[in-house]
Amino acid sequence: MIGRTTELNPLMTKKKKGYPVRRLFRDWSSWILIVPTLFAFFFFSWQPLVKGIVLSFFNTEGYNAVSFAGLQNYKDVIQNSAFQQTLTNSFVYVFWSLLIGFAVPIIVAVVINELRHGKSFFRFSVFFPSMVPGIAASMLWMFLFEPGKGGVLNIMLSALGFPVQQWLQDPDMTIMLIIFTITWRNFGGTVLLYLASLQSINHDLYEAASIDGANVWRRFKSITIPQISSMIGLMMILQISGVFQIFNEPLVMTEGGPNNASMTLMLQSYYYAFRSFEAGHSMALGVITFLVLMVLTIIYFRLDKKLNRE
Questions:
Q1: Reported pTM
Q2: What is the dihedral of CA 198, 202, 206, 208, to 10 degrees?
């Protein structure tokens, strides 16, 4: 009986697998759900991406390709005197973003997670700035950072006996203040993600550590951080990617100034497209930004894989 079953198994397995076309029709109900999503994803995400990459190799009139230009658009963009400063600015944005905005959501999430009362209130409080539209938040901070004696922050500094500041008009402070604004508006959503990750940690680990005499810092270092390390890595990649594509805040608050001190790659791409009407150059700069982000992401995953092996 056992031998007979063994002999029939390959046939049954083959019959069960069937041919690809037959399997395709067998799962027709799943394809009905998936196909519209695939079409929408292709037309709204991949089709513009592929069209933009193709357009970056052509001379353009408006958004129409006129003649093949090869790598000339890329050479023009890279040889532009503002490109090196813009690329440097992007890394400075990332540096300040990681310094100001990366650790803050983790600390706030851990503090809220440890609260016994009022968690809902504090969750809403930290998320509230995320509900403010980006343009409105930028205009609010522009009002606060108004240079001269009439600015809100300068009035407070004058009352305390400190000299007034130029704030966004100071090239050394512009990027840091823009990152501060972005952190204020966006860190609430990140805090909620960390909170969800923290609540998935087994509390028995904390109780065992407390019995062994571990203090708060030791529990945070040995339990909390390792348990949410995957979320921290993911948020770091998303943050670097998002900061490299900053657009709204520099456009509204400084328009890339003073003297390109706060110019970003995406803002420069926007100026190519809608001020100079050079779509080919705009697309070439977008592709360069994409390649930089792809390289940074590959480096991160390689390092993460190497550290996990060790």
A1: 0.77
A2: -170
33 CB neighbour count, 10 Å cutoff: 8
β-pair partners for 64: 61
Which DSSP helix (H) or strand (E) runs through 293? helix 279-309
CA-CA distance, 286 to 85, in Å (whole number)?
Answer: 16
Q: How many CA atoms lie within 13 A of 146 on its CB side?
A: 11
| H or E element at residue 29 | helix 28-41
pLDDT band at 18 (very low <50, low <70, confident <90, very high): low
Segment 80-116, tens digit of pLDDT: 888 888 989 988 998 988 888 888 888 888 888 888 8
Q: What is the mean pLDDT of residues 118-136?
A: 84
Per-residue CA distances from 90 to 85, 86, 289 (Å)? 9, 6, 10
**CA geometry: angle 96, 115, 130, nearest 5 deg:** 40
> What secondary structure letter does DSSP report for 228?
T
The two tokens of residue 50 are 């592929």
- Structure tokens of 230? 């995957």
Structure tokens at 246: 């900053």
| Pairwise CA distance, residues 199 & 110, whole Å | 10
Q: Distance of CA 146 to CAs 40, 154, 180, 281, Å?
A: 44, 8, 15, 34
Q: Is the pLDDT of residue 137 over 70?
A: yes
CA 105 and chain centroid, separation: 14
Answer for the pair 102, 242: CB distance below 8 angstroms, yes or no.
Answer: no
| In 165-278, alpha helices (H) | 174-198, 203-211, 216-219, 225-227, 229-244, 248-253, 265-274
DSSP assignment letter at 145: T
CB 183, CB 213: distance < 8 Å: no
